[in-house]
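Cross-posting from the modeling subforum.

Setting up a comparison between two proteins and wanted a second pair of eyes on the formatting. Protein 1 (sequence, then structure tokens):
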Amino acid sequence: MKKEYNFKDTQTWANQLLMPSFAQDWPLLPAVRAEGAYLYTADGKRYLDFTSGIAVTNLGHGHPRVLAAAREQMEKFSHSAVGITLHEPLLKLAQALTEVMPEGMEMFSFSNSGAEAVEGAIKLARYVTKRPGIIVFEGSFHGRTFGAATFTTSKAKYRKHYEPLLPAVYYAPFPDTFRCPLGSNEEMALKWSLEGIQTIFDRLILPEEVAAILVEPVQGEGGYVVPPAQFLPALRKICNEHGILLIIDEVQTGFGRTGEMFASQVFGVRPDIMAIAKGIANGFPLSATVASRALMSQWLPGAHGTTFGGNPIACAAALAVLDVIKEENLLENCRQMGKRFLDGLKRLQKKYPVIGEARGLGLMLAVELVHPGQGKLPNGEAAMAVLNGCLERGLLAYMAGLQGQVVRFIPPLTVSQAQVDEALEILDASFASL
């Protein structure tokens, strides 16, 4: 007879069965159900979830239209490798995506995760340019697979014991206006970053040997750092001058997170290649490397492939996501609720000296904590205390930044005014208790 276990019993297995990254993370809530903006745990508690599965459930947990689309497809068939067959959800999704992508992004290589989409973008860039060099930015996070870990510099621990990583990868400073050594303004931060790229060209690799510049339009794990408005246009200009491909990693910023479908649209820049994932299917595993037909069609059969990418259930869910974003006017809600939330965070910044900066775009928001009276010395201890204080009061947020000094907020795009105000009240109480 099969033995029955309750959640409390199975929790004790975590350290024996799961890798430490899973078993020793924070806060390890024993979730048993989720709906909308809320998580429910085995001990009967409810949490306002301002992580959205790290920018995945952009429509909130369990959106009924997404679930219905997935359920309908599941009853037809759940998998057949693309190439062995073609299925309708895949083709309909590709067509629907062309209507919301930046201009010219019209051909897709589907995969399952953000790291895979980034790997595909780098492979495509090297394949079509026949150049080796890749330029990325300090503080970036692009994934943890071997190639993606090469491009990730948000923390050294993500690279520990994996060297040597991929060759011909070069690192420029990201224009962080809060921590720019030249001065805390957009002009100095932009100068700092662009001079770093020029130094790479002068001392390390000639621009005609560079295949691509890979960039997050807003840094994610690195601290929710928003660059100056002129930064992406400046990268576009550099790439145009030297025949370099501009790859924009929209894994975390995509599908409405910043108030437009993609952050590159906020900055008015057309990439050559994009990596998209996370919010695309509201929790079902799906991602894509995206480029123009002229570029992608050079990637010949056998040069890249996948077994699970473009799964029919995930594609059906993604089609529903696009419909919901449009029909429920979620981009506008993101902009309005994002402004309300950021205005509230800035009021808290004036009230509590431990907050060095409040920043973000849309509903991709953060506060960076410092030691008051010690310049901008990162204060990861205070950030952890605030996160725990929020958790005790029913709000789930998450850390970011090199020393965990950033508290980031990733509410669903469906978040209400009442939920934003509740989160701000909880934050106020948590800061007051420091």
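Protein 2 (same layout):
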Amino acid sequence: MLTRREIEGELKRQLALDYNCTLEDLSGSENAVTLSEIVPGRREYQEGKYFFTMATLGDSAVIMADRQLHPFLREFIRDKRGFWLFEHPNLCRLERELNRYGQTLRASHHMFLPDPEPLEPHPSFEVRWMEQGEIMGLYGNPDFPNAICENFKPERPDVLAVAAMDRGNIIGLAGCSADCPRMWQIGIDVLPPYRRQGIGAALVGLLKDEVFRRGAIPFYGTSLSNLGSWKIALKCGFYPAWVEIESGKKSTEA
């Protein structure tokens, strides 16, 4: 069984690839700005290089960005604790600068790592496990936008899911995508009539344990204000581990 320290070490190794930085950049007390590059082994959430992306593990921040932004960013991070860079006043200043390049901030991602202790939940409902081939048949279903991707993505394929069943129908689904070979991200959806019955937590707990059994590390992400999702993560033994935000092209629509 992995220890929490080993899991956190694996996260740092992955973030070093994602942010083109060193392990020391992630563990130190000083903020770091690195050049945006496509590093083999990174998590792929968009095509090509990021114009701007930033992460913190709770102390310093690492920012990977286009070279054009570096003069601004060096001033932006001066004399600031990294985690404060994610506060609204600083993000507003950052947004104004990004707008000059046709970019805008996207949502922040609040990310969780797992306690390695197994939960071994005993759900009171019928459970159905799905491997990658079966998951393919669920693409396009609007009921499960968080549990699985909207379509098959070879760069981060959905590899495993577990469903709660009621009279032959799926009422809840937890799925995981192999965002990188060693770390699989879990998502969860429960149909509205079945919420607040512990189904989401039971499914996430089952999937968390199974991902560990398959030799990967499960992780979980949600937004700042999605308290229901936070409660599921905490109930299933996940704990807040890092925060990320990135930019994308600004829409030209009115």
